[in-house]
Amino acid sequence: KPIEQYSKQEASAAALKLRTTLERWSQAYYTADKPMVEDHVYDEKYRDLQTLEHAFPEIITSDSPTQQVGGQVLPGFTKVTHAQPMLSMGDVFSFEELADFDQRLRKNVTTDFDYNVELKIDGLAISLVYENGIFVRGATRGNGTIGEDITQNLKTVKSIPRRLKEPLSIEVRGECYMPKVSFAKLNQRREAEGQDAFANPRNAAAGSLRQLNPRVTAARNLSTWIYTLTDYAQLNVSTQSQALKRLAELGFTVNPTAKVCHSMPDVQSYIETYQAQRDQLDYDIDGIVLKVNSLALQAQLGNTVKVPRWEIAYKFPPEEAQTVIHEIEWTV
Ligand code: NAD
Q: Where does NAD(+) bind (predicted)?
C-alpha cells in the first residue's frame, strides 16, 4: 500500500526489514568484496528506505545505512583513523532530480557558481598521506572514520608516486581501480585455475587491495585517479578545477575528462557524452559527479553526517540485466 497510508508501526517494521536486507548486501559488498546483488537493486531498496524515513523521520535510527558510510575494517589489517572523515555521496537517477539538487543549492547561496563535473569512477576510495613529499601511508575508506592500513599494497601500484615533485606534507584521496583489460585477464586466469571469478572490476580492485600479501596486489595491475585533498590551503588553490591541475603537477594521475560547467544544459551534455562513451573507456564508471567548483562555497555548504552538500552523483541506469550472484567468501 502507499506510504501515506502506513501507520508509524508499519513504517517502522518495513524500515527494519529494509535495513536488515541492505546490511546483508553491504556486508557481502564491502567486507567480502563479493556482491550478492547488482548495484541498481541495492540502490532501489536504499531509495525505498530513504523514502520511508523521509515520511517518518521519527523511525530513523543512528545505525541505519542512510546515516552511515558503508564499509568495515577486515580483521588482520592495522586500523587507521582518518584525520578527516571519508564520506559517501548523495545520488540522483534522473535529470529532473539533478535539476532539483541544483535548485536547492541555488536557494541556499546568494552568489552564482559553477560546477566541476567529473566521471564517477567505480573503484575503491583510497587515502594517500605524504610527509615532506614522501608517501608514508595509504588507507581504505572503511566506515569513513576508521579505514584499513594498506600502505604496503599501495606501494605496488605504479601510478602512485613514492615521491612528489614538491616536498609537501599532504593527504590526497581518489579511486583505485582495475582497468577492464586487466580484469578480463584476471578472471580468465582465475576460472582456468578453478577459482571464483570476480563480479566486476570494482570488486576485483577492492579484493586485490585488501590482501594481507602485497605480492598478490602487485600482480593485479591496479591504477588510480586522484581527485581531492584534505587541506586545499597547501596547494594555494581556490577551486576544485585548480586543485585537479595542481594534483597532476605533483605527479598524481588525474582523470583528464573533468570540465567546468556554467549551466545545467552544459552538465546534461557532459553526462550524455560520457554515458555514450562509457563502453570505450578503459575503466568502469557508474555515473557523473557534480561538485560546486568554489572551495569557499563548498566549505560554506558543509556536510551532513554522511554526504557533502556541495556534490551529487548522477548514477547511470544499469547497462543490462546481469545475474552474477555469489555466496559470501572471505578474502583473508
Ligand atoms: P558511492 O560509491 O555511490 O559514491 C561515493 C564514492 O564515489 C566516494 O567515496 C568515492 O570513492 C567515489 N568516487 C568516484 N569518483 C569520484 C569523483 N570523481 N569524485 C569524488 N568521489 C568519487 O557511495 P558509497 O557510499 O561508496 O557506496 C554506495 C554504493 O555502493 C551504492 O549506491 C551501491 O551502488 C553500492 N553498493 C552496492 C551493494 C551491492 O550489494 N551491490 C552493496 C552496498 C553498496
A: 39-43, 88-89, 118, 141, 175, 291, 315
